[in-house]
Specification:
Elements lengths: L1 E7 L2 E8 L5 E6 L10 H9 L2 E6 L16 H15 L4 E6 L1 H12 L5 E7 L9 H13 L1 H12 L6 H12 L3 H13 L3 H4 L6 E6 L7 H10 L3 E6 L6 H4 L1 H11 L1
Parallel strand pairs: 3-4, 3-5, 5-6, 6-7, 7-8
Antiparallel strand pairs: 1-2, 2-4
Length: about 260
């Protein structure tokens, strides 16, 4: 089922809640500039295994409201905390892809891992995100030809072949975001460093990262593994930045085993 959760006056987040009667819960945080729908192939499998799967569209993206402000890690993680409180979630696995992984890391530090038993980082944009040069290029394209920018992201996103219909579908997920929120997250990924947050995470962490990732280099996954004291790193040898689809069967099985 899908519904909206009010996180502040006038701002509602869309939440997809599949199999709410499931015995175990995984909360998914999507990557920039997409939505919870990128996890379709996790929802398909995990719900059939009895899991409750929750996908949250952050503010500015997917089906959530798109206010002009609030695109910083504190506000984004406070939004997640409000959803957790509203749904009365506890003892769940938090899984974040790319920028969603960065939000997951900050949630663990800012909210002391409230409700989370385990953390999964999939091609996480952490501890840093975009370089100055990459951010400048993406900002320029976002503010002048956002569809072209998203197409360019897709050109480097996947290591494996994707069909034209799949590329078109993923492109449409990116277009659902607002231009201003898309730009604001680029700035966030350029300016913020989450290294200090890593020391505050005590929960077990599973790090999944494509060795061919051209968006967030695999070396950053190795850095996370070194700095997260209770972590394990699983390289995905046949993935770029889209491990959730490129090696979806392996990833899904790891989520089951990790949980």
């Amino acid at each position: 089922m899908g519904y909206f959760v009010t996180v502040e006056p006038g701002v509602n987040l869309y939440v997809e809640d599949l199999n709410p009667g499931g015995s175990k819960t995984i909360v998914f945080l999507h990557g920039w500039p997409f939505s919870h729908k990128q996890f379709e192939y996790q929802f398909d499998f995990l719900s059939s295994m009895g899991y409750r799967c929750i996908g949250i569209d952050w503010r500015g993206f997917g089906q959530s409201d798109k206010p002009v402000g609030g695109y910083n890690y504190d506000r984004l993680t406070d939004d997640i905390r409000t959803v957790v409180n509203t749904l009365q979630l506890d003892n769940f696995t938090l899984a974040g892809h790319s920028t969603g992984g960065a939000i997951g890391i900050h949630y663990m530090a800012r909210h002391n891992g409230y409700g989370v038993s385990k953390l999964v980082l999939i091609d996480a944009a952490a501890p840093t995100g975009f370089t100055e040069d990459t951010a400048a290029k993406l900002l320029n394209e976002t503010l002048n030809d956002r569809p072209k920018m998203i197409r360019g992201i897709l050109d480097t996103f996947f290591f494996q072949y994707i069909s034209t219909p799949f590329a078109d579908w993923f492109f449409q997920l990116g277009l659902q975001a607002a231009g201003w929120s898309t730009a604001a997250i680029i700035t966030l990924l350029r300016d913020q460093n989450l290294t200090a947050d890593l020391q505050q995470i005590a929960a077990p962490v599973l790090i999944i990262h494509g060795v061919h990732d051209k968006v967030i280099p695999f070396a950053q996954a190795q850095e996370l593994h070194q700095k997260l004291r209770n972590s394990q790193l699983v390289p995905f040898q046949y993935s770029g930045h889209g491990a959730f689809w490129e090696e979806r069967h392996k990833l899904n099985q790891l989520l089951v085993e990790f949980d």
